[in-house]
Amino acid sequence: MQQMVTDNTRRSLLKAALFGACAPLLPFGCASSAQKQAALIGCAVTSRNQFSAVIADKEGQAISQLPLPARGHGVAIHPQLSQAVAFGRRPGEFMMVFDYQTGEMITLNLSGSERHFYGHGVYSNDGTLLFATEGERGTSRGIIGVYDVKDGYKKTAELTGFGIGPHEVIMMPNNTLAIGVGGVHTNGREPLNIDTMTPSLTYLSMDGKVLEQVSLPDHHLSIRHLAHDGSETVLCGQQYRGQPEDSPSLISMHTRGGEMQPLIAEPEEWARFNHYIASIAATDKWILATSPVGNCYGIWSKHTRRLVELAPLPDASGVVVDGDLFQVSSGAGLVVKNQYPIGAETNISNVQWDNHWAAIH
Fold this sequence. Notes:
With 361 residues, this protein is mainly beta. The chain has a domain at 7-26 and 76-271 and 283-314: Methylamine Dehydrogenase, Chain H, CATH 2.130.10.10. It contains two helices and 31 strands. A five-stranded antiparallel beta sheet has the order 1-4-3-2-31. Strand 19 (221-228) and strand 20 form a beta hairpin.
């Protein structure tokens, strides 16, 4: 563990380490948490300036929570072990590894004075390695930190040379990494190079070789959040950094060797998303994407690329898919089940979900 962090973060991390066991939550006095099976994990806001990683059942009701030292963002779930990692929100100073069955915190990795986390990571398909998006402080040089799971999540390598400001990284079924490279140099969260930003979707081998890079015609579309459809197609969600009155397409599809294909909606429909896509999930027929700042989510036909449903949802955040069922979380404590085109069902959760969800398979 690297030691160079701020005093406030250090105190928070020590406090989290002291109380590193998951605290049980009884959802609205219903059946005890021991009777529920863990199915979803996400970061949440528990009170003012207090944040947690929350383990929930398949309905999005909290079973237990683990306090985080600062606001969390994305979660990676191990493909075989009952381990998960919560990443600090950009510019994050921590990643916390925990066992979601026992509630034990396994380790805290701190970013150090020269690095920060961008809030996302993913395990290799065989579960031996963890890959995390990181940046060099002062330059935003993009880094994929490589961590050895069996060696206590010790960092063993840094993959670089693909651009600045990487955000989400996902693992493709063929063991290739896909990275949403935002292209934005930041000081904290303040962008410094809007006029010259160079975003891309980058495919990287697990040993760091750049296999392919593609970009969008408008360089103000910062590629940030990713998903794949279970096969070879990557969905890219963008944050638009151009003129406020513009309403460009904020989602694209890509398959290796081809061109970026923007999804289609009317300008006034894109305007609802307020220039930002958070979470994406896809089936073989449909694509769902959320916008917390737009307080909505949309569903597109994968075949026609056209928007087929636009629905309001306050602080729409994470989305996961199970078969043909989408589940969407909300910072307003709502959970939506949408099995398009059958219809949507909204339930009340006991959690203020924040940013992203990850499903336990």
